[in-house]
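Appendix B. Chain record.
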Amino acid sequence: MRFAFDTEVEAFRAELKQFLAAEMPPDSQRVEHGVIGEEALERQYTFAFQKKLAAKGWLAMAWPKEYGGGGASHMHQLVYNEEMSYAGAPVSNMGIAWVGPSLMVYGTEEQKQKYIPRITNVEDWWCTLYSEPEAGSDLASLKCAAVRDGDEYVLNGQKIWTTGGHQADWGWLAARTDPDAPKHKGITMFVIDMKSPGVSIRPLYDGAERHVVNEVFFEDVRIPAENVVGEVNRGWYHLAVSLDFERSSIQFSGAGRKTVERMVNLLRDNPGLLEAKPAIRTELADRRIELEVSTMMAYQIAAMQARGMVPNKEASISKNFASELQQRLGITQIRLLGMLGQLRNGSKHQLVDAATRYFGDIPITIAGGSSEINRGIIAMRGLGLPRG
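Structure tokens predicted for this chain:
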């Protein structure tokens, strides 16, 4: 099958490329000026970049127009994700990805008016408070408890792996409000001010020594009852809400294509690497072919959504293949560099920071739906196999 985009989508791609060429400095300049690796500067850079996207109507481009979005088609969103990931643009935003869509469906009119405009204008930063030490893939086992006390709820417990929790203004929280109910019931969704008394945050560092995720502790934190979103004790059914946005995993393919191009250029500039490992040429060819497969999977999903279909097993297949491919790309880059692949930023002998990339990709098959959970979805909903 040959995928082709209509002229309007291709014109949008050209506009995106022009914008990124003007607004995205090369990685080398970002490292030189301290943007990459320095938390405060990176946050400042991310906010400034996303405000430019918001000004053009691109930050929430797939949201309905009545909520400040662009009402973009699936194909426009696909191309947007592909080009942004290829450029390495800082577009990750929990408010756009999770909070806004949930508020559109389950929030009161007052909640929508209070939070959604500040999300689309990049005035507030959000984190999602889901996982706990004993509730990850089996999220319905969460124990973080919120007990009603008059016009407030009193929250006690812990969350873990909270991306950006140390930078967030607000949290999107799942807590247990009825400990006696079956585990898929008795959960309620809240909006929580991350500066509330009793909230403490402890950093967790990944294998690349980066501080991205956190542990978050709650000790007698008081949440106004008006911060409940949706029905009390029905939060499990609100938790996984997703409007019909593009979810093809094309971002992995875009970033992977840039990685392969960098490796090819590295071999051209350093022929000794190829002489030392001639077989790396075949390995790179394998990765490039796999990227084409991953891209076609992503295009198929967007095409299905554009026809009004719901890609369930297809989305899980694409996510698994693309995220596992990211790990293989990291391994190939380490093999290409050999001992030089262990060097980190700051070494005069370093050719590229492959080690940070390698360690950073280790959890990628867990985030956003683990490979094991996705394989269960593929087996049951795709192949019709029995549960268990």
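Further analysis of this model is presented in Appendix C.
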